[in-house]
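URGENT: need a sanity check before tomorrow's submission.

F., can you look over the Glycoprotein record below? I want to be sure the sequence and structure line up before it goes out.
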Amino acid sequence: MTRSAPTARRLAVVMATLAVLAWSAVPAGAQPSTPSSDPTTTRSTPSPSATLAPPDTSVDGTFLSISVDEVTPTTVSTSSAPVVTVTGTVTNVGDRAVSDISVRLQRAPAVRTADELRTSLTEDQDRFDTVGPFESLTGDGTDTALQRGDTLPFELTLPLRSTTGPSLGLDRPGVYPMMVNVNGNPEYGQEARLDDAAFLLPVSGLPRDTTVLDPAAPDAVPLPPDTGRPVATTLLWPLADRPHLAAGLPGTVDEEVRLNDDDLAASLSAGGRLEGLVSALEFATGPTVDTEGALASSTCLAVDPDLLVTVSSMTRGYLVVDDPADPTGPASEGSGAVAAASWLDRVRTLASSMCVTAVPFAQTDLAAVAAVADPTLTSAAITTPADVADSILGVTSRRDVLWPDAGALDDAGAAMVAASGRTVALLAQDAVRTANTPDTVTLATEADTPPLRAALYDTEVSTALSAVGEHPTTPSVTPREQVYDVAEDSRTARLQDALGALHFDALNAGAPDTVAATDGPRSLTVAPPQTWTPDRDEASAVLGTIAGLFRSGLATPRSLSDLLAVPPPLDAAEVDYPDAAVEDGAPTDVRDAVAAQNTRIGALAAALIDDSRAAISPALYVAPLREDLLRAMTTSDRRGARREESDQAARRRVTDVTAGLDRLYGSVTILAPGGVFTLASEASPLLLVARNDLPIGITVDLAVDAPDAMQIESIGPQQLPPRGSRSLQIPARVSDSRKMVVEFSLSTTDGTRLGQAATVNVRSNAYGRALAIITAGAGALLLLLAGRRLWHRFRGQPDPADEQ
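Structure tokens as predicted:
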């Protein structure tokens, strides 16, 4: 795929289409093997009278697409063959046949600076000024033309150096940009350059030139690299994946977990991505390959606690839901339990013999976590992961290092990490503002937070590694001028770019035309993306390259501990959080929803009763819900073509958590008696039943909405047993005999509503004010009659009432 100057390329195609101006190739065999100063040697001008059919609109106005499928050798060394062979395919992606198709190999000058590892690949073909001859793939007749949708293979071989014919003209080790250029003649048009594909070729040494007959000549012997200043190298090897657990389900001790899909089963099995990462590391660090333990000692496993939790749960059997939008709905048995158990055992074995650190839970967006500003959520994101890794892997992981998935921290995130007790953040070099590129720096954080250091990894190498694999991405910290659509390149080309980036620092100890590092020690920290998608062969190529640098003396192994022991400069550096990191972070609506649901989780957790006799504790019961919120803010899959899918998954996860909390809150409710509740007297109690369907006891308060004629006494907090009910006797006093409607509801002790309110119709046998008047009148009459009798008795007169 063409990466060089896309705007200029499209303009050239349009110009060829309109037959105003185009360049075509010089006939095959006429190309020089030394740098050319005349750009017209690679282009020609068609006749102005030539015309084309209406411009192609099927693939952005292009006619041919070229793919590099294999490069041999992937790295040139003193022991490799004296030639480079590139094989690939040319595909007609236009709307017409193309004839006169020819391809050739070109080379640009060696990469001089780290940013040229990217920018050199976007240069126009004129920059690739050392050229080989064109090789024809089709004839000039319509019967041999490449038809729409058809593909042609090609193979180009060119000597590294030669005194007798065309060659790449290499005279010293370095990292060289290469290009395969394809010319052709679209139907109704003229010959023109129709596509190109660029990649990097690392040259760690040159084999002897077999065309030199004099054994005493300088080219007659291999040319090794300069190993006088090896680069100290540290490697982070990530084991992470996007979230898979179904959301909105609380913790359990006896139920199978539910997954949204069964993709992990394939990834953990032979040939899968995660299995390949483990398999490649096992082989590369094995005692028969890594005999001196150089690679093992310089490597640190970076494990995702969310992945460990998921895989560990899979080993006990699991379900896969039919519809991810319905996590509690129909589900089928998962197929990856055996693969999960095997993979986890292999990871435990690796972890027992090398450095281990846990990354933030589910690659969650730490800027979003800092914005929510909840201590419990923060702890789940960056403190608990080490406990998870230690518990599942049976190791003691590093608790001083934190590697954010973005490779960068904003000011709030840096302060949050420092306050959490972590002392070092692993960041990209472009994520801090510093005058040079030291191994570690002290970050300028808020005055009331502990000091925080940053260990810096190479941005260009990380960028190149991010493009390796099935799903190429570009890190958030990559400078904007180095960003292009890596998905247009073949997997082979992207791997070559990564191998070239890994060699750059090691090969540039001070070559005459390169920008050399300082005279002090040189170092390189390699950090692929956390959710990295190479297959086993690609992962092995990366590990093999680093191991080869160790064996050749171009690099020396350096452990993570040794890296962190490097003292930082005296001047503090400021964090530089790029705009791309904001764009790649959790959407604002997701973050706001997380904050709202996290408050509800906290309220529920505070109300649950921690009973040692219970099967599960409140913390473990609500932990999956809080972890779901972190999963919703994951930055995994948000930097590539799957961002929209990731956004949808995040919003669905928050919705599922909301629905799950609604179910839990609805599981604690008040049961109202049917009909009318009749009080025996004005001070009779009300009898109600509170029901708790949760597997944990809960403390509740009773809220009452009653008319003024009824006074309800508070009964205080009440404890409801797990999956049980309790009768509540509620003292009430009624001053009216009318039927009254009273609403009862339960809430947590902080006032958060539980369940549905219950409406009770109450009637009292008390007569209220009328009864008081009648009683007073009867009392007065009684007193009057008694007084009358006494009056007659005192006077000695019989009472008329006694006369008979």
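My own read: The chain has five domains: 6-220, 231-580, 590-666, 668-766, 769-802. Residues 768-794 form the longest helix (27 residues). If you see anything odd, call me.
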